[in-house]
Write a structure and sequence with these properties.
The structure holds three protein chains of three kinds. By secondary structure, chain B is α/β, with parallel strands linked by helices. Helix content of chain B is 44%, strand content 14%. Chain C starts with a helix and ends with a helix. The chains are: A mainly alpha, B alpha/beta, C mainly alpha. At the A-B interface, helix 3, helix 5, helix 8, helix 9 and helix 10 of A face helix 1, helix 3 and helix 8 of B.
């Protein structure tokens, strides 16, 4: 034992009995993870849409908007969460604000690219046919931009699923709690469970969104996903 | 177009379901502070460490037995993150250590005995609408540990043995060790121990310090005296032969408005019964045997007739 | 509240401009160099692993589905979990940091190398074979040079992500700019946390810009402005 606990645990990467005993906790963590991800995406979309519209409407605003959200993206997530604590404590807002900010860059960029990618001829045709700006946007441009927008939602979703684990350091974490538990106990089982489940969750979410993308845009099958 | 509308409705419906699920989410899901359940719920919090988890589970169990509505938010993070949550009201109660809280609230504090620490702590807590309940005789003090090999090599049994040898040794501990009176400055002042060869900022008695000490990346580590890791690794805990480290009695610290007489009574019962030896044993059950803190806590309480 | 914000900004500026901050083993230069060292090492190792894999898949076409989707799925890798797992298995040291950062850096390089090799025009490949080149020669003398823009783009993406994530090193007790985040939190020194965050953000942006220049320099003359290039890049970016 003079070598420390490490050799004992290396031989036992996963203690299945521990998993069996903690199924309820693990399920709770998974639910929290899904809810945090879902809410962050929801708020991200709600905020990104008007920002993207503004960027398309006023092309000169696009540079600054992209620049600003780009800078936010490079701020280490842990720092952002720590900075929010004095204001929002350990309430869920702290985690959500941070998570939403990170989804913004991806969603804004993809939504703008998608909208801009609409053939100018199509736009002109719609105008010629007498579509109002609103109808044009929602019935012509948006549907055509959908593949790229959903690609953005895919990226944002998968990124957020990874980022949620960092919120374990500020009282949340979803499956990330298992990492901290394993860390302080010097115990690999919860860590492995956490990694495997978050990977599976991301994989499932990605598949779901690819399916959604195909259903919503039957005319635009971007080959290769 | 129709398919998009249907698709859009489907997506909206899913999101709505998600939001609805949030409202009625399970205990672990999206619970915030205790305000939601109408004032009388006590939310017990804790940091990440096994001892904290055990104590918090004990508090929750006896409060439940006393008929108090209890909610637990454990494993929240480090004290820097968790104590402000107490101040803010996100949690109502924390198992704490009087000496650590004192130096947390007053980084220049130098009091050492239990009485001095409690006296100095009282007004600081008062100012934040917090109150410390009865302090337990059980203590989890800050200590210094070396591996058996190092102890043999340099002839180290007590802290003052480090004098004259520090420049050959690397010391590791939490980042604030460098500046706190009970840390490196204290070793200099009270023991005359000169500067160590190197200081590595790791953690407070956590996995980083444990691993670094075992692997030889540090020679002297800051540990907590009830840690299971000390016996598990065969470390030598250097004897504190001069007064430096403050008392670290286990004490429940809670928000004044949540600490009713009922709550106080239930918690003080634990504080009077728990001892340092018992606490060390319980830590070992969680740290080394990987038993559940809740089970360990409940078993002990049942044994003591508190449940 | 507004007054508080101004206060914090002042304190952060004071922290960043304090000469004490720029010297010594805890100083910004040392920490930055450590940070860059971890990042460089991880990106190099990732490149050594990912490039051959991506190029092989691109050249032979086997395993294309994996290559195309790897970047997106790679985003889900919980770096915090990986570093904690590696630490629990291996203990204190540089290895856990490298494992986590390499895991992060590999996917974009695989996807982009694959796309780069794949994007080489059918006609060009046919012409090369028509000239008598064997598979290997086609690979080294035609496909790889033409894949350079996309490969460089992949390396650039990875490098920037690695620089932004190398703050994790401090989480397991090592150095780098992440120390300001961890120490700032422990010492309840908010200006230190903000200062550290700003430094990391600036370093990430500089990395992005610097590698952008390298990318421009490395693209073989005659390939600049290739239409097929842009189309494939767009396709890859959509999928990735």
């Amino acid at each position: 034992m003079t070598d420390g606990p490490a050799p004992v645990l290396a031989a036992e990467l996963v203690r299945w009995s521990w998993i069996g005993d903690h199924l309820d906790d693990i399920r709770g963590d998974l639910v929290q993870h899904v809810e945090l991800t879902g809410l962050a995406l929801l708020f991200g979309l709600l905020l990104a849409f008007p920002l993207a519209l503004a960027a398309v409407q006023w092309p000169r605003a696009y540079g600054p908007i992209l620049g600003f959200t780009g800078i936010l993206f490079t701020i280490p997530s842990l720092a952002l969460f720590i900075l929010l604590i004095p204001f929002t404590g350990l309430q869920i807002q702290t985690a959500l604000i941070g998570l939403t900010i990170y989804t913004l860059l991806i969603l804004v960029r993809n939504t703008v690219e998608g909208l801009r990618g609409v053939d100018p001829d199509v736009r002109e045709a719609a105008q010629a046919m007498g579509y109002t700006r609103g109808r044009q946007l929602f019935q012509v441009e948006l549907p055509l931009a959908l593949p790229v927008i959903i690609a953005g939602v895919r990226i944002a979703t998968v990124t957020t699923i990874g980022l949620v684990t960092v919120t374990a350091l500020i009282g949340w974490g979803g499956l990330g709690r298992l990492f901290i538990e394993g860390f302080t106990l010097n115990f690999t089982t919860p860590i492995v469970v956490g990694i495997v489940l978050s990977a599976l969750l991301a994989f499932a979410a990605d598949l779901l969104l690819v399916g959604l993308q195909h259903r919503l845009t039957p005319w635009a099958r971007s080959g290769g996903g | 177009m129709r398919r998009i509308r249907l698709g859009g409705v489907a997506v909206a419906a899913c999101l709505a379901l998600l939001l609805a699920a949030c409202g009625g989410g399970g205990d672990k899901a999206l619970q915030g502070g205790s305000q939601e359940n109408g004032g009388s719920t006590v939310t017990v919090g804790s940091t990440n460490f096994s001892e904290q988890l055990i104590l918090a589970e004990m508090y929750a169990a006896v409060l439940k037995k006393a008929g108090v509505k209890v909610d637990t938010r454990l494993n929240l993070g480090s004290r820097e993150v968790v104590f402000p949550a107490l101040e803010k009201g996100d949690i109502d109660l924390l198992p704490e250590y009087n000496g650590s809280v004192l130096s947390f609230l007053d980084p220049k504090a130098t009091q050492t005995t239990t009485e001095e620490v409690n006296t100095a702590l009282s007004p600081l807590l008062d100012a934040k609408a917090l109150v410390a309940l009865d302090a337990s005789p059980a203590e989890d003090k800050d200590g210094w540990a070396v591996t058996k090999e190092t102890a043999d090599k340099y002839g180290l049994a007590k802290i003052s043995d480090l004098k004259g040898k520090a420049h050959e040794l690397v010391v590791g501990g939490p980042p604030e060790l460098k500046t706190r009176p009970a840390g490196l400055p204290g070793l200099k002042k009270v023991y005359g121990i000169e500067d160590f060869k190197e200081f590595k900022a790791l953690d407070a008695g956590g996995p980083l310090t444990t691993s670094a000490l075992n692997k030889g990346d540090i020679d002297v580590g800051r540990v907590f005296t009830t840690q299971g890791a000390i016996t598990d690794n065969g470390w030598v805990l250097l004897e504190e032969d001069k007064p430096l480290e403050p008392a670290q009695n286990i004490v429940p610290i809670g928000r004044k408005d949540a600490m009713t007489d009922q709550v106080k009574q239930a918690l003080n019962a634990i504080s009077s019964k728990i001892t340092t030896e018992e606490l060390t044993k319980l830590n070992q059950q969680v740290d080394i045997d990987k038993q559940d803190p809740e089970k360990v806590a409940n078993d002990w309480l049942t044994q003591q007739g508190l449940l | 509240m507004g007054g508080d914000a101004v206060n914090v900004v002042n304190e952060v500026v004071a922290w960043l401009t304090d000469p004490a901050q720029w010297s010594g083993p805890d100083g910004i230069p040392v920490r930055t160099l450590q940070h860059l060292w971890y990042s460089l090492l991880a990106t190099a190792i990732a490149g050594a692993i990912a490039l051959p894999i991506g190029v092989y898949i691109g050249h032979t076409g086997r395993g294309a589905l994996v290559a195309v989707n790897l970047t997106n799925l790679g985003r889900a890798i919980p770096s915090l979990g990986i570093i904690i797992l590696a630490f629990t298995l291996v203990g204190f040291g540089l290895v856990p940091v490298l494992v986590a950062l390499v895991a992060l850096a590999v996917p974009p390089i695989v996807t982009n190398s694959y796309a780069g090799v794949r994007s080489v025009d059918r006609d060009v490949r046919d012409a090369a074979e028509g000239m008598g080149m064997q598979g290997r020669q086609v690979l080294w003398q035609v496909e790889l040079p033409m894949a350079t823009p996309l490969i460089m783009a992949g390396v650039r993406t990875s490098a920037v992500q690695v620089v932004a994530t190398a703050t994790l090193a401090a989480f397991v007790g090592l150095g780098g700019l992440g120390r300001y985040l961890i120490d700032g939190l422990a010492q309840r020194d908010l200006p230190q946390v903000v200062g550290g965050a700003i430094l990391v953000a600036v370093l990430s942006l500089l990395t992005e810009l610097a590698l952008g220049r390298v990318q421009a320099l490395v693209v073989p003359r005659g390939l600049a402005g290739q239409g097929a290039d842009a189309a494939v890049r767009a396709k890859v970016e959509k999928a990735a």
